[in-house]
Amino acid sequence: MRNNNAKYLLCTDIIIIGAGPTGLMAACQLARFGVDLIIIDAKGGTTPESRAILVTARSMEIYQQMGLSDEVLAQGEYIRDLSIYINGKEKVGFSLGKAGNGLTDFPYLQSFEQSKNESLLYEQLKKMDRDVLWRTELVDLEQSAEGVTVKLQDLVTKKHLEVRAKYLIGCDGASSTVRQQLKCKFEGRTYENKFFVADTRINWAQPAHRIVASTSRTNFCAFFPMYDKESYRVLGTLPRNFYNREDIVFEDIESVVRSTIGIPLQFKMVNWFSVYKLHQRCVESFAVNRCFLAGDAAHIHSPAGGQGMNTGLQDAYNLSWKLWMVLAGTAGESLLSTYHAERYPFAKWLLTFTDRIFGFMTGDHLFFHLLRKHLLPFIFKIVSISPRIKKRIFRTLSQTWYAYEGSLLSVHSKQSLTFKAGDRFPYVRIDHKGELISCYNLLTAAKFHLVCIGADSNGNNDGIPKALVPLIQPVNLPSSPGWLKLGVKKKLYILVRPDNYIGLISDRMDDNSLEKYFRLYR
């Protein structure tokens, strides 16, 4: 490091702009692979407000791989039930229960707010001897064929810092400076309505662990349980007569919330309150040369379904292992193009999906009001008595359904199976050393896993070329009823990517099979 009084020069492999959930996840994943990195944020520390509150099963599986899922379960809140109220009367009430049973180790809705996600990831990052440069902001960036040079400013000392990195990841949120520096279009629209969000403590007769929602002709509000039986996230549409006010506090709209929900309750405390406008926007490309955009910097949408934070975590999960392989010299830079190819279609689908749900629940046109009043209870009653529909909804909301089937990195087998390359690794429970566990407990190394089903040994490097041994962890599994149900009737090899998606399925495995597959990364 060179000291030029007010200016410093640092070199690293990756610089991450933004230490929210997406940036911290990217940093933790890269640290797992041993990649040198610098991560900065203009804030003084992790976010104190709860902000996003739901963690999907797919995100929980990332935490499981990192050895952190037990901490999430201990600190979070399991959501058991959902009630819909209209005009103060419960029209629908049913158990969400474990709708995802048989699909994942985390078959329920999990409340674990953004502040806790950030704290957990930040502590994990420090355990891997990395830290965040807090109170540091991006001033400028330039790209060349060799890398990215950024100018940063320490907001406390006002000194400037210059960093040269091979790649940059912009995780700096909806107002992303990185995106603006890259001159990326962020096209979409802004919702006409305004919305509010509040973290509160409530005294009421509702059972714990229950989401309570209510809608009227002009308003919508919902209550999400948080870390104890009295703590709730309250969100909803802001009454139109408040649109032009800048000094709104929760007490101003408390009576509206009360009349919308229509049941007795007492707000004991408000810890955080904010009013905002919602946007639906997405960049045209998640990558510009050596710079990448992830999370809200790349796509923003309504909060319907609790998808936002989780999608950012998945973006980081997808990109990090690819950067590791390129930096390690085991893959060519063309591998990085698959980040946009795999994550952009999901972002576009998500914008449409959340827009439809949010429009239905918050639209103040008479047509939408009548649909909510008469059709919504009917729909939820059907859902409440149909395990099959519950599972389908769970798969959608949990993000476990999404696959990279069309990816260049997904190579299929001729064997007839219920799963295919590009899918998330199948959820199968097996007897492992006398204990019934899911296979996900065995896919925890920061590398590829070569799963052999129908193997007789406990795992060795047979069939793995010497050059690929450092990249691949063998996992040998006996045949079981769970695999047979998925169509595995004879020995099968599954090459699992570091993000636990299937890269290759084959009936046989030899040096040429793996070498041919890894040539896709060149």
Overall strand count: 26
Instruction: Please state the average pLDDT score.
Output: 90
Structural class: alpha+beta
Number of helices: 12
Explain what the structure shows.
With 522 residues, the protein is α+β, with helices and mostly antiparallel strands. Among the domains are: 2-75 and 113-187 and 281-356, 3-Layer(bba) Sandwich (FAD/NAD(P)-binding domain), CATH 3.50.50.60; 429-521, Glutaredoxin (3-Layer(aba) Sandwich). Helix content is 29%, strand content 31%. The chain is built from twelve helices and 26 strands. It has helices at residues 21-32, 57-65, 69-75, 114-127, 177-181, 250-261, 308-327, 337-362, 366-384, 387-398, 481-485, 511-518, and strands at 2-4, 7-17, 37-40, 54-55, 77-79, 81-86, 89-95, 109-111, 132-133, 136-143, 148-154, 160-170, 186-204, 210-215, 220-225, 231-237, 265-283, 287-288, 291-293, 299-300, 429-432, 435-438, 448-453, 472-477, 492-496, 502-506. Strands 1, 2, 3, 9, 10, 11, 12, 18 and 19 form a nine-stranded mixed β-sheet that branches. An eight-stranded mixed β-sheet has the order 7-6-14-15-16-13-17-20, with helices on both faces. Strands 24-23-25-26 form a four-stranded mixed β-sheet, with no helix packed on it. A hairpin with a 4-residue loop joins strand 10 (136-143) and strand 11 (148-154). Helix 7 (308-327) packs antiparallel against helix 8. The chain is globular and about 70 Å long.
